[in-house]
User: What shape does this take?
Amino acid sequence: MKPRIRTPWVVLPAAAAGLLLLLVPLAALVARVPWARVHAALLEPALRETIALSLTSSVLAALLAALLGIPLATWLAGGRGLHRRAVRSLVTLPMVLPPVVGGFALLLAFGREGLVTAPIGLQLPFTFLAVVLAQTFVALPFLVLAAEAGLRAVETRHLEAAASLGAGPWRVWTRVRLPLAKSSLGAGLLLAWARALGEFGATITFAGNLQGRTRTLPLAVFSALESDPEAALVLSVTLMGLALAVLFALRGRWFSVASSDPEAPR
Amino acid sequence: MTRRSLAAVALMLASPLSGCGRAEPRAMVFVAASLAAPFEELERAFEQAGGADTLEVHAAGTPSLLLQLRAGAPVDLFVPADLAHMDQAIEAVGASAAPLPIARGHLSLAVRAGNPKRVEGLADLIRPDLVPLLCGPEVPAGRYARTLLAQLNLPARSASDEPSVQGVVSKLRLGEADVGLVYHTDVLAHPDLEEIPLPSAQQVPVLYLAARLDSGQAPGPAGAFLKFLRSTEAQAILRSHGFEEVAP
Assistant: This one.
C-alpha cells in the first residue's frame, strides 16, 4: 500500500497567513457594503449598462486573446531556440509593465496620431473597440503562457503516433495536440477573461471613461471611489459577485493543471 | 548567511529608521495638482527664509488627497482646488480656523498650438468633427467646466470623463483630443498648447483656499507656512506661475 503523502505542518502557518492576506481585505469590503443600496442599485439602468459593457468587452477580449494567443503559444512550444526565448520575454512584457503604461503605449501606436492608425486615418481611442483592445493587450500574455505550458505537456509520442498514421500538421494540431491540452487552454482562457474583466489602467488611458461606451466596472468603481464611496462599494461587490459566479459555474472543470496523460481522470 | 552579510542586511534595514525620532514632526501639506509647480518654488523660498526641513508637501489630484485625508493622513495644511472638497475635508477632520484664500485662477479653452482645427469658442465643444475633453464631475476642474457650460446653456460634451486635468492636457498635447477645458496655468506651463480667449462673462471663479486641519501634528510650521503663503513674496511667486492674487 502506498504511504499517504502528508503536508509538512511547517507550511501551514505561512499558508494560513497567505490566505488571510488575500481574504481579509475582501472580507472588509464585503462587511462595509450597504446591502440596502445594492438591491436598488442593481435596478439602475446605468449600472446594468456598465455590467453589460464589462461582460461583453471581457468576453470579446478573452476570445481575441485566444484567437491570437493559441497560435502564438503553438509556435513558442515548437522548440527551445534563442529566438523563441526572446519572443517569450517580449510576450511577458505587458505583464510587467504598469497597465497605464500599456495604455499609453497603445495610444502611441493606435491613437488618432498613432504610429499605425494615423496613416490610415483610424479613430480608435474613446471607442468600445479600444476597450476590447486594451483588455486583450493585458490578458494575452496570461493566455499565451498557460497555453504554451499545456501544449508542451502533450507528450510527443501522441503527436508522433498521429503523424505516423498519416495525419498532416494541421490535423495533428487540431485533432490531437489542442484537445490533449484542453484543460490548460481552458485555464488560460479563464485567466485571460478574469484579467480582462478587472482591467483598469490601460482602459482608462487608451479608451477613456465614458458612461455607456467605455466605462467598465473597474472604471466605474474608480470614478465613484472619491465622490461616492458607498456607490464604489456597491460596484466593487457587483464585480466580485460576477467573477465568483463565473468561477463557481466553471468549478474545477476548466481549472486543472496541464496533464500529459490523456487517460488520467480530469 | 555569514555574520558579516547578516550585519550588512541589518544595517540596510535600519537605515530608513534613522529618520524616526526627529525632535519636531514636519508639517504635512496637501496641495491640489494644479499648484504643484508653484508650491515647489514656494517650499524652497520658505525654507530659505528659515523654515528649513519643516515641510512635507504632497501634490496630487484633489479627490485623491481627500480620500487619503479621510483615511487618516495627518494633514496639517490642505489646499484643494475647490470649496466643495474643502468643506468635505473640514467636515471629516475639523479645522480650528476658517480657510484663507491664497490664490485665484481661471479655466481656459485649450487647443494645440497653432489652433489646427480652427476652434473659436466654447460652442465649438459640440462640433461633431472635434474630440472634446473635460474632466469628470468629481474632479474640481470638471465641476468648474460643467458649471461654466451650464451657465451658458451649452451641453457638457466630452469623449471621456478624464480623472485628472493632467490627463486632458496630455491627450491634447498628443493630438488625441482637439479641445479641452483646463486651467489657465496648465496652458502657460506647456508651450505646445494655446488658449482660445473667452469673454469675461464666460468665466467661473477658481479659488484656492488653505486651511489648517485638526488632523495635523505640526501646527507650528503649518501656521508659519500659511502666513508665508499670504505674504507678498509668495503671492509674487504664484503670480509668476500664472495665478491671480488674493486680497491680503
Remarks:
- Residues 80 and 86 of chain A are 10 Å apart (CA to CA).
